[in-house]
Amino acid sequence: MRRALGTLRCRPALLLLLLLLLPPVLPLPAAGGSPHRLRRQPRPAGGLSGSRAADTACKNRPLDLVFIIDSSRSVRPEEFEKVKIFLSKMIDTLDVGERTTRVAVMNYASTVKVEFPLRTYFDKASMKEAVSHIGPLSTGTMTGLAIQTAMDEVFTEEMGTRPATFNIPKVVIVVTDGRPQDQVQDVAASARTAGIEIYAVGVDRADMQSLRIMASEPLDEHVFYVETYGVIEKLTAKFRETFCAANVCALGTHDCEQVCVSNGGSYLCDCHEGYTLNPDKRTCSAVDTCAPGRHECDQICVSNNGSYVCECYEGYTLNPDKKTCSVMDMCAPGRHDCAQVCLSNDGSYSCDCYEGYTLNPDKKTCSAVDMCAPVRHDCEQVCVRDDLFYTCDCYQGYTLNPDKKTCSRAITSSLVTTEESCKCEAIAALQDSVTSRLEALSTKLDEVSEKLQVYQGRQQVV
C-alpha cells in the first residue's frame, strides 16, 4: 500500500486523472435543463488553503445553524458514515463558539431525535465527538416532522437560539436521499415565514421537487444535489463560500424591504426607482410623483407605480406630447347624442332642433311643432296645418281677405235684370199650374178609391 502511494506521489498526472474520474458534484437541474449554479463570492487575494482557510473561515458570519440529517432505512450504514464525515468537515469550516456560530444536529426517519441543541457545544472537538456517536434510526422519511421539530424544540432561546434583537441568521441544512412521507410543503413555508433559511441537499434517489418545495429562494442558491454519499463532503467548500460571504445581501439574511447594498461586512438598504427610504432605513414608500413640481402634466397627474401619467378634465383631450390638453370638439361626429343640432359650449355641449321642431324633455331628441296650436299662428278664424307650415281659411259665409289671415262676411247682389225677372215669373206660374193639376188628380184618386171599397164590400155580402 505504501509503495502504491509512493508511486502515485511520483506520478502527479496519474493522480490528477484519478481525481477527474471521481463522480462530480452536480447542482440541481433547473427548469429547461440548464444547471443552477451557486453564487460564489470572490476569494480575497492571497487566500488561504487547507486547514488555515478552515480556521479563519466565517469569522464575520455568526449563525444559528441546524443540520437535519436523514437516516431512514434507504440510507445504508456506510452511507450514513459518509454523512457524519460531511458534518465534521462542515464544523471544521465554521467559526464555532458561543458568540459566533452555534451548531445543532437533528437525526430523523419516522421519528425525530435532537442529537444536540444549539446550547450544548461551543467548540469543534466536542461537536465532532458527538457527531461520531450518532446512529441511524432506519425507518421512514418524515421530513416535515423534522422541520416542525426544529421550529418547536431547537430554534428557541431555551435551547440556545439567540434573541431576534441579535439579528443572527437562523439556518437549516436538510440532507436526504428520498421522498418525504409527510406534508413538508406547508411546514417548510411556515419555517421560512418565521425567518428560517432552508438549504436542501439531495443525494442519489432524492426527490427533486421536494427539495425545491423545502428550500428558500432563490432555489439555485439553496438546492444542491450529489450523485452519491461518497462525494457529499465536496459540498463543504460550497457552503463555506456561502456562509463566509461578507456580502450579507447575497445570503438573504438582511431586513431590507426592496434593495440591499453590501457595505463591507455590513449592508445598507435602498429602494427601487420611484420609492424613497423611510426613516427606519429599512422600508420604502412610493414617491408622490404627482406632488407639485414633480410632474409636467397640464391638468391632471395620476400616480402609476412609482411613475405618473397625465390626463385631462372632461371636455379636453390629451395632446400627442402626453402632457398638455386641448379643448375637445364635443360636437364632432360620434361625440354627441343630439338628434338634430349640437351646440359646443366650452368643453361641453347642448342640443337644439331645426325650425319647426321642439326639444323633447330628454334634451336630446326633437318633435315636430304643431303650427296650428293656440298662440302659434295668426289666422283669424281657421288654421290649416301643412307639414311644418300653415295657411288660414274662413268659416262658411265668410271670405279670406287679401292679407291671407283675416275674414269678411260674404255680400249677395240685389240687382236683377228684366229678362231674369220674366223668367222667374214664368217659372212661378208653371209651378202654380202644375201644383193645381196635381191637387185635382189627387182628389179624383181619392173618389175612385172610395168607390172601389164600396164595390169590394158588396162582393163580400153576396
Short key terms for the protein model shown above:
single chain; 462 residues; alpha+beta; seven-stranded mixed sheet; two-stranded antiparallel sheet; 23% strand; elongated; disordered N terminus
Q: Outline of this structure?
A:
With 462 residues, the protein is of the alpha+beta class. The protein contains 11 helices and 23 strands. The radius of gyration is 57 Å and the shape is elongated.
N- to C-terminal distance = 185 Å
Number of strands: 23
Q: Low-confidence parts lasting 5 or more residues at pLDDT below 50?
A: 1-57
Structural class given helices, strands, pairing?
Answer: alpha+beta
Walkthrough of the structure:
With 462 residues, the protein is an alpha+beta fold. It is 30% helix and 23% strand. It has eleven helices and 23 strands. It has helices at residues 2-10, 12-21, 50-56, 77-93, 124-132, 143-154, 184-193, 208-214, 235-243, 248-251, 418-461; strands at residues 25-27, 64-70, 102-108, 112-116, 170-176, 196-203, 223-226, 259-263, 266-270, 275-277, 284-286, 300-304, 307-311, 316-318, 325-327, 341-345, 348-352, 357-359, 366-368, 382-386, 389-393, 398-400, 407-409. The strands form nine sheets. Strands 1-7-6-5-2-3-4 form a seven-stranded mixed sheet, sandwiched between helices. Helix 4 (77-93) runs antiparallel to helix 5 and helix 6 (143-154) packs parallel to helix 7. The longest helix is centred in the last third of the chain and has 44 residues, at 418-461. The chain starts with a helix and ends with a helix. The model is unreliable at 1-57 (pLDDT under 50).
